[in-house]
Amino acid sequence: MPRRLSPLDRLLSEADSVLRTLSRRGNNAARPSPADGHRDAALSEGERRHAAGLMRVNHTGEVCAQALYQGQALTAKLAGVRDDMRHAAAEEVDHLVWCEERLRELGSRTSVLNPAWYGLSFALGAVAGAVGDRVSLGFVAATEEQVCAHLREHLRELPPEDRKSRLIVQAMLEDEQRHGDNALRAGGTDFPRPLKDLMTGLSKLMTRASYRV
Ligand SMILES: [Fe+2]
Ligand SMILES: [Fe+2]
Prior knowledge:
Shape: globular
Bound molecules: fe (ii) ion
Distance between the termini: 45 Å
Strand content: under 5%
Radius of gyration: 17 Å
């Protein structure tokens, strides 16, 4: 039986997660990057900047995913699906690391706005978790739906020669689809359209900002 954590233990472990997510090279991926072993294409300056902007958006999305799972873990009961959620959260760490590595290779950096998006996503995750597991899982499903839409758009937008970024995005898309399906199958509420539209608006704001800074 797992050891019960004292409130101080939990606080320290939360603080550790926040710092890891927001600090550079704070995490290790469990799976090698899908881009490993592939050669970098010769990109024009414009292509490189565009690819970096898109990968920075994806990286911010993964920061939000970490915050969402951590916020949820604080409040949700997630009866019967805790292991699934932990597994999904670990895959999100891989995505975070892959995007960060790719940004570095493209000569760029992560978004300066990440701490703000982290805070907002953490709060949303915690609120959804407090309302109940069905809402919490529904929130995961709706979020993944948004993320998948972005990733598909990025596959259309990334320079065709930028095979490394494309391989990362493709692998992420497959994982995110599975996370969303699992959350719905585990009993997540399918959010009503107006709520999804609100989330789309928020994610547009995030993507526009992170693309630039
Ligand atoms: Fe992810
Ligand atoms: Fe995911």
